[in-house]
Specification:
The structure holds 2 protein chains of 2 kinds. Chain A is of the alpha/beta class. Among the domains of chain A are: 158 residues, Aconitase, domain 3; 163 residues, Aconitase, domain 3. The longest helix of chain A is centred in the first third of the chain and has 17 residues. Chain B is built from 8 helices and 7 strands, in the order βααβαβαβαβββααα. A 7-stranded mixed beta sheet of chain B has the order 4-3-2-1-5-6-7. The chains are: A alpha/beta, B alpha/beta. The interface between A and B is large, with 75 and 57 residues. The structure holds iron/sulfur cluster (SF4). Iron/sulfur cluster binds next to helix 12 of chain A.
Chain lengths: 465, 198
C-alpha cells in the first residue's frame, strides 16, 4: 500500500519508537521566540547542559514587540525583559538571533519561509501553535509547549504520538472575491473548532493547488483552529519556485539533490487516510466569524444561527458567546458596526495580503469611525511593501503602515483593541479577550477587512470588485 | 529532573461546564511575560475571575466558596488554541492535579502530562453526570486511580475507564521526565543524524 505525504515525512524522522508510547521524532528546524522559550533555556541551565544543535535553531522576538518606534527601548518593562532574555539566551548558546531592527526580524512563521529556512520534507517545531503555517511547503510542522521546547533544545528530538491522517480536498474554481482565508474559515465552520483534533491534515484539490505560497500558508496556518496537530500541502513547482534563491535555500548541486528528493514528496495514489472530506470551491463565499471561536463563521451575506439551530449541548456556550459579542442569534452579519480593522499576523501579514489590501483601498478613503492597524509580518515584508510603494497607496487612503510584529493578533504588546469595540481582523483567533480584554473580534480576509475599513461596517467586498 | 508523581486522588471538583475553554481564557496573553514557571495560578482564568477593577466576579466558580478540590471538571474541547504551556502551569500552580473533560485539545494534553497534571477524558454522558451530581451537592467527590485508569463518582458509585498511553502512565506514576529519557538515548540520536541522507 502506498504512503501519504505525512507518513513519508514522519517515518523518515523517527529515531526510535517507544513501545505503547510516542515516537522519538528528529526535528530539522527549531524556531524560537521570546515568550515560550525562557523557561526552557532555564531548564537547560538547571540540568547543566547546552543546546545540542544550535545550527538547527533560529530565534526572533515577535509577540512582545511594539509596532511603532521600534528603534526606541521597549516601554513595557516585562516585555523588554523577555526580549532581552531571548537575546541573552541565544547568544550564550550560539543560536542565530534576528533581534529588533535586524533586517530579518519578524513573526517567526513569516521569516522561516521568506529566509528559505522552511523546506519541503522537514520536521519543524516552535513553541507556538501556528507553526502549522510551514506545512504549506510539505513539512510536518507543529506547535509545542515549553517542556517540549526544552526537549528539542536539549536533544533535537521530541516525543510525539503519531496523529491520524485526514485529507481535505477542495476542488473547483473559487468565486470572485474569495481567497485562501475564506477557504480555511469555511472549512473550520464546517468541521468545528475541534473537528480535526488528533489528526494531521493534508489539503489537496485544484482550489488548493492554484493558490500561491502565501495563500497556502494562510490555509495551513489555521489548521490548529480546528484542533489539527498540523496541516500540509504537497510541494510542487509553485513551492520550488518560491524557495529558490532565498537566503538559506540550498544552492548549486545541493539544490539539485534536494529538488530530486522534494519531487517525491506527495501522497501515493493508493494511500489511505483515516478520514477524507471534500468541498466544492464554488460553495465558498467571503467568510466572517460572529462568535468566540474560529468555527463560528458564516458567509458574509448569511446570518448568525438561531438558537434552535444550535445543538443542545452547545447552547450554553453559544449564548455565552453571543453575550460577549453583544450579537443577537439569528441576526444578519452585513452592516454590523466596526471600530477597528487589523491587517497582519502570521495568517495574513505577508506581502500578498498587503498588496490585496492596498489594491482594494487605492483611490478610496478610510471611514472616519475606523482605527486601522496595518502591520507587516516581517522587516522584509515591510521593505518589500515600501519598495512597491504600497505605503504611499495606504497613506493616500488614510492608512499607515506600521512596523512588523504580532501586534493586535494577541493582547501582549501595546496594540490592544479596547473593551467592547468590534474589530474586523485578518488574524486567526476570535477568542474572548484575545485582542484585548473585552475586545470583540470578527475574523475575515484582507479584502473583507479592507471593505470594512472603507465603509465603517461589515461589508461584502464583492460590492467593490 | 522529576515531575510530580500521580497515583490516586480522592477529591471534590470545581465544575466549569463551558465548552471550548481556550488557553487564552485559562491564562490571558498579557500574563505570559514572566521568565520563570511560577506564580501563574494567581492569574488562572483572570478575565472570568476578576472584573476590570480587579474585584473578584462573585458568580465565577473559582470565587464561589461552595466549590473546591483538586479536580477541574470542564466542558468539551478543553485547552484549545494557543500552545502556551503557561495554561497547564497556571492550572497546576492553582492547586489542581487533574482536569476532567469529554475532549481535550492535543497540545494542552501533552503540556499537562509534561507537568504532572492528569487530563482525564471521559464520555460526554459521564461528564454530564459529574456536573449533575456536583450541582446537587458540591461536596460530591471523585476518585481517580491512575494505575487502574479509572475514575469513580463516589456519590453514585459509577465509574468509567480512561485512556492514557502506557509510556505516559509510567512517567506519571514514577515522576519520570521526558527530557531525562531523551538525554539517555543521545547516542541513538547521533547515530540517526549520521545516517540521515537528506
Ligand atoms: S501573529 Fe498571532 S498567531 Fe501568529 S505567532 Fe504572532 S501571536 Fe501567534
Amino acid at each position: 500500500m502506498g504512503k501519504t505525504l505525512f507518513d513519508k515525512v514522519w517515518d523518515s524522522h523517527v529515531v526510535s519508537q517507544i513501545e505503547g508510547g510516542p515516537s522519538v521524532l528528529y526535528i530539522d528546524r527549531h524556531l524560537v521566540h521570546e515568550v515560550t522559550s525562557p523557561q526552557a533555556f532555564a531548564g537547560l541551565d538547571r540540568r547543566g547542559i547546552s543546546v545540542f544543535r544550535p545550527q538547527n535553531t533560529v530565534a526572533t522576538p515577535d509577540h512582545n514587540v511594539p509596532t511603532v518606534n521600534q528603534d526606541l527601548t521597549i516601554q513595557d518593562k516585562l516585555s523588554r525583559m523577555q526580549v532581552e532574555k531571548l537575546k541573552e539566551n541565544t547568544k550564550k548558546h550560539g543560536i542565530n538571533h534576528y533581534g529588533l531592527n535586524h533586517p530579518y526580524q519578524g513573526i517567526v512563521h513569516v521569516i522561516g519561509p521568506e529566509l528559505g529556512l522552511t523546506q519541503p520534507g522537514m520536521t519543524i517545531v516552535c513553541g507556538d501553535s501556528h507553526t502549522s503555517t510551514h506545512g504549506a511547503f510539505g513539512c510536518v510542522a507543529f506547535g509545542i509547549g515549553t517542556s517540549e521546547v526544552e526537549m528539542v533544545l536539549a536533544t533535537q528530538c521530541i516525543l510525539q504520538p503519531k496523529p491520524k491522517r485526514m485529507r481535505i480536498t477542495v476542488d473547483g474554481k473559487l468565486k470572485k472575491g474569495v481567497g485562501a482565508k475564506d477557504i480555511i474559515l469555511y472549512i473550520i465552520s464546517k468541521i468545528s473548532a475541534s473537528g480535526a483534533t488528533g489528526y494531521f491534515v493534508e489539503y489537496a484539490g485544484s482550489a488548493i493547488r492554484n493558490l500561491s505560497m502565501e495563500g497556502r500558508m494562510t490555509i495551513c496556518n489555521m489548521s490548529i483552529e480546528m484542533g489539527a496537530r498540523g496541516g500540509h500541502i504537497a510541494p510542487d513547482a509553485t513551492t520550488f519556485e518560491y524557495i529558490k534563491g532565498r537566503e538559506f535555500a540550498p544552492k548549486g548541486d545541493e539544490w539539485e539533490k534536494k529538488l530530486a528528493y522534494w519531487k517525491n514528496l506527495f501522497t501515493d495514489d493508493d494511500a489511505v487516510f483515516d478520514l477524507e472530506l471534500n468541498y466544492d470551491a464554488a460553495d465558498i463565499e467571503p467568510m466572517i466569524t460572529y462568535g468566540t471561536n474560529p468555527g463560528m463563521g458564516v458567509g458574509i451575506t448569511g446570518s448568525i444561527p438561531k438558537l434552535d439551530e444550535i445543538e443542545e449541548s452547545t447552547k450554553a456556550s453559544f449564548m455565552k458567546s453571543m453575550k460577549y459579542m453583544d450579537f443577537e442569534a439569528g441576526s444578519n452579519i452585513l452592516g454590523k458596526t466596526v471600530d477597528y480593522v487589523f491587517v497582519g499576523s502570521c495568517t495574513n501579514g505577508r506581502i500578498e495580503d498587503l498588496r490585496a489590501f492596498a489594491k482594494f483601498v487605492e483611490g478610496k478613503k478610510k471611514a472616519d469611525n475606523i482605527v486601522a492597524w496595518i502591520v507587516p509580518g516581517s522587516r522584509q515584508v515591510e521593505a518589500q511593501a515600501k519598495a512597491e510603494g504600497l505605503d504611499k497607496v495606504l497613506e493616500a487612503a488614510g492608512f499607515v503602515l506600521r512596523q512588523p510584529g504580532c501586534s493586535a493578533c494577541l493582547a501582549m504588546n501595546d496594540d490592544k483593541i479596547p473593551e467592547g469595540n468590534y474589530a474586523v481582523s485578518t488574524s486567526n483567533r476570535n477568542f474572548e479577550g484575545r485582542q484585548g480584554p473585552g475586545a470583540r473580534t470578527m475574523l475575515a480576509s484582507p479584502i473583507t477587512a479592507a471593505a470594512a475599513a472603507i465603509t465603517g461596517k461589515v461589508t461584502d467586498p464583492r460590492e467593490f470588485l | 529532573m522529576a515531575i510530580d508523581k500521580f497515583v490516586t486522588l480522592k477529591t471534590t471538583c470545581v465544575p466549569l461546564p463551558v465548552e471550548n475553554v481556550d488557553t487564552d481564557q485559562i491564562i490571558p496573553a498579557r500574563f505570559l511575560k514572566a521568565t520563570t514557571r511560577d506564580g501563574f495560578g494567581e492569574n488562572l482564568f483572570r478575565d472570568w475571575r476578576y472584573d476590570k477593577s480587579d474585584k473578584p466576579v462573585k458568580e465565577f466558580v473559582l470565587n464561589n466558596p461552595a466549590y473546591s478540590g483538586k479536580v477541574l471538571a470542564a466542558g468539551k474541547n478543553f485547552g484549545s488554541g494557543s500552545s502556551r504551556e503557561h495554561a497547564a502551569w497556571a492550572i497546576h500552580d492553582y492547586g489542581f492535579k487533574a482536569v476532567v473533560s469529554s475532549f481535550f485539545a492535543d497540545i494542552f494534553k501533552n503540556n499537562a502530562l509534561n507537568n504532572g497534571l492528569l487530563p482525564v477524558q471521559v464520555s460526554p454522558e459521564f461528564l454530564a453526570k459529574i456536573f449533575k451530581e456536583i450541582d446537587k451537592n458540591p461536596e460530591t467527590e471523585v476518585e481517580i486511580n491512575l494505575e487502574m485508569q479509572k475514575i469513580t463518582l463516589l456519590s453514585t458509585g459509577e465509574s468509567e475507564n480512561f485512556e492514557i498511553s502506557p509510556y505516559k502512565k509510567k512517567c506519571l506514576l514514577n515522576g519520570y521526565d521526558d527530557i531525562d529519557y531523551l538525554l539517555s538515548i543521545k547516542d541513538k540520536i547521533e547515530a540517526f543524524e549520521a545516517g540521515k541522507s537528506i
